[in-house]
């Protein structure tokens, strides 16, 4: 495909640079490990987001508790953008970040994380 050719069918080119979605911010005050599952809270399901609003897309994805890295991959945005947007939604009370593994995590918790990771990779 040449430099001036239109994008392939079914793959729309974004007219908005990714970091304009975060107003140039690259950090968040929320602790967001890449493997952390993110869950939509009930309050978010009643909020009406504009059709193309990235926050609404994140809310819908998080009904299934994906990881921060999976959100980034599924929405095709840089990880830093996904982290800032998820952090904003956590701070606003729309999402909850599930705890990840610690030194005291059980064998079952570790196995569950590995399973979620594999399911997420297969889904991509």
UniProtKB/TrEMBL annotation:
Pfam families: DUF742. It comes from the Bacteria. InterPro entries: DUF742. PANTHER family: DUF742 DOMAIN-CONTAINING PROTEIN. This is DUF742 domain-containing protein. It comes from Mycobacterium botniense. The lineage of its organism: Bacteria, Bacillati, Actinomycetota, Actinomycetes, Mycobacteriales.
